[in-house]
Design brief:
The chain is of the alpha+beta class and 223 residues long. Helices cover 31% and strands 35% of the residues. The two termini are 57 Å apart.
């Protein structure tokens, strides 16, 4: 509460009542004695005190902002990435592989295209790539040169492995997993037609489902 000043008697003594504790009162008394001993200008002292208060308020505000950012970063670290994976043939010898982040959480991934005998057709089966999704950027897409016409049994599978950037440290459920997309065709003619039909229709994520492509999807999350 604000301090009040009272004259205690005829010997020119002044009593200052501030409603504070003994320890704080002693500190205030030491400040006043220093001002008197050094004959400091009270106006200049008050001005400096205001500057100190502004500096303290600025530091407190910066610390609050820093704490908020740290809390947001920790929340992101503990949030699993939600991803939608798709494959679209764009020519008889090329496919488009896209990953859409549904919650903009950074992630690492690797992928590989294989045939029915697990022969690698394309992709990165070993190293992990890092993606930092941004609002408004759309899906993360790659075009791979895969000759669909050379696949003898008309079977191709995408194996997509992902994990959050904090997975190795926190090992939280759902922060990593594997997605497998399998595409098959009933005949060579249907297999070739599917690729061209995708080009004409320009549909996303998978242009042809069951006519003539058959798409099978499986998802396994790490616990």
């Amino acid at each position: 509460e604000p301090c009040s000043v009272a004259n205690t008697g005829s010997d020119n003594k002044i009593q200052i009542n501030c409603g504070i504790g003994k320890e704080q009162g002693q500190k205030m008394l030491a400040i006043l004695n220093k001002i008197l001993a050094n004959q400091l200008d009270p106006g200049a002292v008050m001005e400096k005190l205001d500057e100190i208060q502004d500096g303290v308020s600025s530091i407190e505000s910066e610390l609050a902002i820093k704490k908020e950012k740290e809390q947001e970063a920790e929340k992101k670290r503990r949030t699993a990435p939600l991803l939608s994976v798709s494959v679209t043939p764009i020519t008889p010898k090329q496919v488009n592989f896209c990953v859409t982040s549904l919650n903009l959480i950074p992630y690492e991934y690797r992928y590989v295209f294989v045939d029915s005998k697990d022969t690698v057709l394309g992709g990165f089966p070993i190293s992990m790539e890092t993606v930092y999704p941004q609002s408004g950027n759309g899906p993360y897409c790659l075009t791979k040169d895969i000759d669909l016409t050379s696949i003898k049994d008309h079977y191709m599978a995408l194996r997509f492995t992902f994990k959050s950037l904090s997975f190795d440290e926190l090992h939280l459920p759902g922060h990593g997993g594997e997605v497998e997309l399998k595409q098959e065709c009933n005949s060579e003619a249907a297999f070739h037609e599917a690729a061209f039909l995708c080009i004409r229709q320009r549909r996303f994520p998978v242009a042809v489902v069951n006519r003539p492509w058959v798409l099978k999807k499986s998802l396994r999350l790490y616990s």
